Structure formats: structure tokens, C-alpha cells
From TrEMBL:
The small GTPases Rab are key regulators of intracellular membrane trafficking, from the formation of transport vesicles to their fusion with membranes. Rabs cycle between an inactive GDP-bound form and an active GTP-bound form that is able to recruit to membranes different sets of downstream effectors directly responsible for vesicle formation, movement, tethering and fusion. The physiological function of RAB42 remains undefined. InterPro entries: P-loop_NTPase, Rab_GTPases_membrane_traffic, Small_GTPase. Its cofactor is Mg(2+). Its EC number is 3.6.5.2. The gene is RAB42. This is Ras-related protein Rab-42. Belongs to the small GTPase superfamily. Rab family. It catalyses: GTP + H2O = GDP + phosphate + H(+). Keywords: GTP-binding, Hydrolase, Lipoprotein, Magnesium, Membrane, Metal-binding, Nucleotide-binding, Prenylation. It is an enzyme of class 3 (hydrolase).
Length: 208
């Protein structure tokens, strides 16, 4: 699926403590896109620094195709946030509320859709945060919860797809509105509609 086929662009951030696996989740998700090249490896195993943006086009369940622009760093202009903790790292779980409060303070209460993600679910023998406890935290913060594992490719696509579909539903309800100077959601204007499926459409103003 090409970016030029997309109707909307959603800007999404993965937030959480260092070493919870945000980069692994991103690379697994982008590598899973049809026809996608293998993402380039990190130059070193140190905690990620920088604002690299990953992109993937997605067909929503009941709606248009969208382009996801995903970063591991915090942006003001984000419409979706995956709050990620490591199920084997108690501190990373305890810090989730701090990450949530930071987004709410900077972004505003009506601008972001959240999903709580418990990563490294394949490490069952060393986990120290139960699914029930995480579900209770998610419910108290008004968001859904999902466990993932980039290593075993468990629920990685589902986590991003769930967040994207929730954003689309919020748009349809009017809970989130397109605003000219806000980049969390952008409408991609198509210059023309090709009648031939073999013709490539111009990508349009789809840059992150």
C-alpha cells in the first residue's frame, strides 16, 4: 500500500522508560508491513536518542487508509500514544502514570488517544507485573491494555492497529477534530483520482 493511497496521516508516539523495548516494537511493526524492507539496525545497544520517524500505511477496519508516522520521542503534535512498560521491570510500570501526566499536561486532555502496552510478554518466568494489575491501571487512566512481545511477534500489529482504529472512531464521533495548525491528524489531499489501478498516484503532502 502506497502513502499516496492514504486519506489521513496520524502522528503517534511510543513513550516509556529506557530499555522497555520501544525500538523493538517499532522495528517489528514496520518490518511487518507488506513489501517493507528490513529496518536498519541501531548503531549501538545504548538507549535510543533522537527523533527518528517510522512510517507505515494501514487499512482501518471500518474507514479509510491512513499513514502512521511513529516516533520514540515525545512530540506536542501527536494524536495517539502507546505507553510502554516492561512486564519484567516494576519501575517501568510505576512510571507509566508520570508519562501519562506529561502528555496530558503538554498535549491537553482532548487531543490524544492512549493504549497501555505491557511489553516482553514472552518472559513469563521473570515477569513482576500481572496482567490484572496492568488492566486496573489502564482502566483508572481511561485506556485499554494489551500485552505484546516483539521477540515472538505477539500482538505487535494488533497494538498499533487498535490505537489507529480508536483514533479513527474518535474522529468520526467528533471527539478529535482536524485543526489547521495541529499535526496530530492531517487530511491528505489527493491531486487526482486515477481510473487505472496500474497508475501510480502522487504521494501528496504526506511528509511527517
Amino acid at each position: 500500500m502506497e502513502a499516496g493511497d492514504c486519506s489521513y496521516q496520524f502522528r503517534i508516539a511510543l513513550l516509556g522508560d529506557a530499555a522497555v523495548g520501544k525500538t523493538s516494537l517499532l522495528r517489528r511493526y514496520v518490518a511487518g508491513a507488506p513489501g517493507a524492507p528490513e529496518p536498519e539496525p541501531d548503531p549501538d545497544p545504548e538507549p535510543t536518542v533522537g527523533v527518528e520517524v517510522y512510517r507505515r500505511a494501514l487499512q482501518l477496519r471500518a474507514g479509510p487508509r491512513v499513514k502512521l508516522c511513529i516516533t520514540r520521542s515525545f512530540y506536542r503534535n501527536v494524536v495517539g500514544v502507546l505507553l510502554v512498560f516492561d512486564v519484567t521491570n516494576r519501575k517501568s510500570f510505576e512510571h507509566i502514570q508520570d508519562w501519562h501526566q506529561e502528555v496530558m499536561a503538554t498535549q491537553g486532555p482532548d487531543k490524544a488517544i492512549f493504549l497501555l502496552v505491557g511489553h516482553k510478554s514472552d518472559l513469563q518466568t521473570t515477569r513482576c507485573v500481572s496482567a490484572q494489575e496492568a488492566e486496573e491501571l489502564a482502566a483508572s487512566l481511561g485506556m485499554a491494555f494489551m500485552e505484546t512481545s516483539a521477540k515472538s511477534n505477539s500482538n505487535v500489529d494488533l497494538a498499533f492497529d487498535t490505537l489507529a482504529n480508536a483514533i479513527q472512531q474518535a474522529l468520526q464521533r467528533g471527539d478529535i477534530k482536524l485543526e489547521e495548525h495541529w499535526g496530530g491528524v492531517r487530511l491528505i489531499h489527493k491531486t487526482h483520482t486515477s481510473r487505472s489501478p496500474s497508475k501510480k498516484q502522487h504521494p501528496g503532502p504526506c511528509q511527517c
